[in-house]
Write a structure and sequence with these properties.
Blueprint: H1 2-6, H2 8-25, E1 30-33, H3 40-55, E2 60-63, E3 79-80, E4 91-95, E5 111-116, E6 127-130, H4 137-148, H5 154-167, H6 178-189, H7 194-201, H8 206-216, E7 220-222, E8 227-231, H9 245-248, E9 256-263, E10 266-273, H10 279-285, E11 289-290, E12 294-299, H11 304-321
Parallel strand pairs: 1-2, 1-4, 2-3, 4-5, 5-6, 8-9
Antiparallel strand pairs: 7-8, 9-10, 10-12, 11-12
Bound molecules: guanosine-5'-monophosphate (5GP) and manganese (II) ion.
């Protein structure tokens, strides 16, 4: 009985409704933000919600820095730069941000709504809807737009579908549930040009293809091939934070893949796993977070060599925990 009347899906629906009610009732400005290093889900979910709020006649603002490969989704006048303070009476909607420290463009203060699908999210904010069973935050925005009663247009549906496409790896990852495919079918029905969109999402600048050779020359196998690593060699420039880990993860026999890149703030790790090995556990042990099969962390104040050592130690522990070693 309880599972039917008070199951997780029902609780989720109630929370989405509560967010919709709060947004509809809010009289002041609404700011929509997402996470640093925005990916397709960060940009797609926040742009989709921003457009839906504007369609409702709300005084909405989208604070974002869309990366080059996603800029085709966006009109120049739709996004504004970062704010140090929010005006009095503002409501802040944070989407796809696993922790308050990863929120980009605005201070996490005042009335904060936190919508996310990372299990490691500490449920910050006044209203938090965190559901790790959802494939993408964009999937949750789809439900929110429905709850708001906004009429779907291709302009709203396209970024929302983008978030779902990118977080499911083009409907290939294990999070591609029947719910995801139904939602995607519905969004395509609202006029999203699916083939054109998936093609456009793969476009990369020449710098990416020039970097590819240098990156692939760093590929290394560890623990008998259970771990595959690669890094962006110092000095090699790429314009976007590109999904190199998405290439090396397909090394046959590997259970976990780690890509390292040097950033101003430290060495950024992108981690992917399969077969019971948790990328999330490795990321958390290194001070980061994310999902079980896809996670990340930033190692501050270390060079590439020490970063590799820490990665190897953390992965070794996870491979032991899961019985591979
Ligand atoms: P990516 O490797 O694509 O940057 O990140 C993979 C996943 O892990 C994403 O869902 C991203 O939000 C999350 N993630 C990446 N880096 C961090 C981090 O430093 N901390 C936390 N909590 N999550 C991260
Ligand atoms: Mn996401």
């Amino acid at each position: 009985m309880d599972a039917v009347c008070n199951g997780p899906e029902l609780q989720y629906r109630e929370k989405i409704r509560a967010v919709a009610d709060a947004l509809r009732a809010h009289k002041g400005p609404i700011f929509v933000v997402s996470h640093v290093d925005p990916d397709g889900d960060a940009i797609g979910s926040s742009l989709g919600l921003y457009r839906a709020l504007r369609a409702l006649g709300k005084e909405a603002f989208w604070i974002a820095e869309p990366p080059r490969y996603l800029r085709f989704l966006v009109r120049e006048e739709e996004y504004t730069g970062p704010l140090e303070r929010l005006p009095e009476g503002a409501l802040l909607v944070v989407l796809d941000a696993a922790e308050p420290g990863r929120v980009a463009g605005a201070p996490v203060e005042g009335f904060v709504v936190n919508i996310d699908h990372h299990g490691t999210n500490p449920r910050f904010g006044c209203l938090a809807v965190v559901d790790p069973s959802k494939a993408a935050t964009a999937q949750m925005v789809k439900d929110l737009v429905d709850a708001l009663g906004v009429v779907w247009t291709p302009e709203i549906a396209t970024p929302v579908l983008t978030g779902i496409i990118t977080d499911t790896g083009n409907f290939r990852f294990a999070n591609t549930t029947p719910e995801v495919l139904h939602t995607a079918a519905e969004l395509v029905g609202y006029g999203v040009p699916l083939a054109e969109l998936t093609d456009r999402l793969q476009w990369r600048p020449a710098s990416y293809f020039r970097a590819l050779g240098a990156v692939l020359s760093t590929v290394a196998f560890h623990f008998g091939g259970l771990l595959v690593t690669a890094h962006l060699p110092p000095g090699v420039q790429v314009e976007d934070s590109d999904d190199f880990v998405g290439l090396i993860r397909y090394a046959e026999g590997s259970q976990i893949a780690v890509f390292l890149r040097e950033r101003e703030e430290g060495i950024k790790l992108s981690i992917r796993s399969r077969g019971g090995v948790s990328a999330q556990a490795v990321a958390v042990s290194l001070g980061g977070g994310g999902h079980v099969p896809a996670a990340g962390a930033t190692l501050r104040g270390v060079g590439l060599e020490e970063a590799y050592q820490r990665v190897l130690a953390a992965v070794e522990e996870e491979l032991r925990r899961t019985g591979y070693l």
